[in-house]
Write a structure and sequence with these properties.
disordered N terminus, Serine Threonine Protein Phosphatase 5, Tetratricopeptide repeat, 18 helices, two-stranded antiparallel ribbon
């Protein structure tokens, strides 16, 4: 009898422990995250960062003087230290984008032997992850110069060294080319997990080649041989229609609404107006995109004085369409591709067509993408100030000015194009902390936690200041 009671007590004890262990299990949060979900999260993070107007994270629209501020004017005066702007940009891309992409590739590769998995689909998924990884690193290099690369994303390396920006960039081009070769356009990929293309591989193929075109062009002044090869390899396969633009749409409700809607509408803030620098040029050219970019004050478009305090009620605002919750973010579009091809033609690269043809097509693509008509574009292009043959200045000035207008709402890409072409001529306001920034400084956390490697990187690029020209910015 005693033995039976002992056995019963033991079973009861184990049963109770089992119940307690079950209570300790969090059934709401997954212990394993699918590689597809990690990819979706990384994709949303990079899109959010590239479009957000949050002054703690992204002030590139003000670097290129398309927007200016009303009451709080630090960022319009190139103050990047009062707020942790470099650190936020750095952390989002490393932590929320690149780390998630790395884990996505790891999980996807590990699932490759599971029953029912299609090897061709898996191969496409991994190729897409690699393309987005290249994109993420390219943004970091174009922002800071030398950055952690070979030591990056390795949790066993607490103090990662910084790699040379040019070396990184050329390696990224090699990786991108390899990823493009692995794409099977006849197969599926991420499907509904992909919020840009819905898993459409022909569109991913065009996006990847368009990215290769852009990266190749960026090397034109520092390594013409590599640049020419990349551009000419990519040119036949780039985005050819606005229907193929790399865009991500948002939803009506938080947290999946557009960050512009989050920061300009739901926050109830009136922090930004159109900058006079930008609007004055568009007014001079009678640009039909003014109505698509901004609101009117009375019957005219009026920009606030760049870098000064501006009364929100007296100047043109961001067009309400752009502030809608579902307004899409664009990572790449036909207009940018055509401007890049125009630059390539001027540099003697074999891209098909003439600089003028691509310039015209870029402007048509921009106007129609924003909701204008081809007739609007034809009328605009007929003006002597716009027409390629008669517009003022060198080819860099002509393309640079129109690219600046065409890349509206894409502050980072506009800033990169400005640094590459040096047009339009932008002058810092008299109250600015510095001349117009040509890079972001390294995060202060890197100075305190990874000081030796950060100092070596700063020395290598010519100084950790915003006016240091990066390796590709030669002219």
């Amino acid at each position: 009898m005693k033995n039976i009671f002992a056995i019963f007590l033991t079973l009861l004890l184990f049963s109770s422990c089992s119940k307690l262990e079950e209570l300790n299990v969090n059934v709401k949060d997954p212990t394993k995250v699918p590689g597809e979900s990690l990819f979706t999260g990384a994709q949303k993070s990079i899109c959010n960062q590239m479009v957000t107007p949050n002054v703690n994270a992204n002030i590139f629209r003000m670097f290129v003087q398309q927007w200016t501020e009303t009451t709080y004017i630090d960022e319009a005066n190139y103050d990047i230290t009062t707020r942790p702007i470099p650190a936020t940009h750095w952390n989002i891309i490393y932590r929320d984008v690149l780390m998630n992409l790395k884990e996505s590739a790891k999980v996807l590769a590990a699932s490759g032997d599971l029953p029912g998995d299609d090897p061709a689909v898996l191969k496409n998924k991994l190729a897409i992850v690699e393309v987005m990884t290249v994109y993420g690193y390219s943004v970091l290099v174009e922002t800071f110069g030398n950055v952690p690369y070979t030591d990056a994303l390795n949790q066993t390396i607490l103090l990662p060294k910084y790699d040379d920006g040019l070396v990184i960039y050329k390696d990224l081009l090699v990786r991108l080319s390899a990823a493009i070769l692995k794409m099977d356009q006849g197969q599926n990929s991420f499907g509904s997990y992909d919020n840009m293309f819905g898993g459409n591989m022909p569109k991913w193929y065009k996006f990847a080649n368009s990215l290769k075109l852009r990266m190749g062009m960026l090397l034109s002044d520092v390594d013409a041989t590599t640049a020419k090869a990349a551009v000419e390899e990519a040119a036949p396969f780039v985005i050819k229609s606005n229907f193929d633009n790399a865009t991500m749409s948002y939803l009506l409700d938080q947290p999946n609404n557009n960050p512009i809607n989050e920061n300009l509408v739901l926050s109830g803030r009136n922090d930004f107006v159109a900058a006079n620098t930008f609007v004055d040029v568009m007014n001079d050219l009678n640009d039909p995109r003014r109505a698509l970019y901004f609101t009117m004050v009375g019957d005219v478009y009026v920009g606030g004085i760049y870098g000064a305090s501006n009364d929100f009620t007296k100047f043109s605002h961001v067009n309400p369409t752009i502030t809608e919750a579902q307004f899409p973010v664009t990572l790449f579009n036909l207009s940018e591709v055509e401007f890049l091809l125009a630059e390539g033609a001027e540099r003697g690269f074999n891209v098909g067509g003439t600089a003028e043809t691509h310039y015209d097509q870029a402007i048509v693509a921009s106007i129609t993408e924003w909701g204008g008509t081809e007739a609007d574009a034809i009328t605009y292009l007929a003006q002597p100030k716009v027409k390629y043959a008669t517009a003022t200045g060198t080819w860099k000035q002509k393309i640079g000015t129109q690219k600046w207008i065409g890349l509206y709402n894409r502050g980072f890409e506009s800033w990169t194009a400005y640094r590459m072409l040096d047009y339009p001529v932008l002058i810092a306001p008299p109250t600015a902390d510095t001349e117009l920034p040509l890079r972001l400084t390294y995060p202060t956390t890197e100075q305190t936690l990874n000081g030796v490697n950060r100092s070596a990187a700063a020395t290598a690029i010519g100084g950790d200041v915003v006016t240091t020209k990066l390796f590709w910015d030669k002219n």
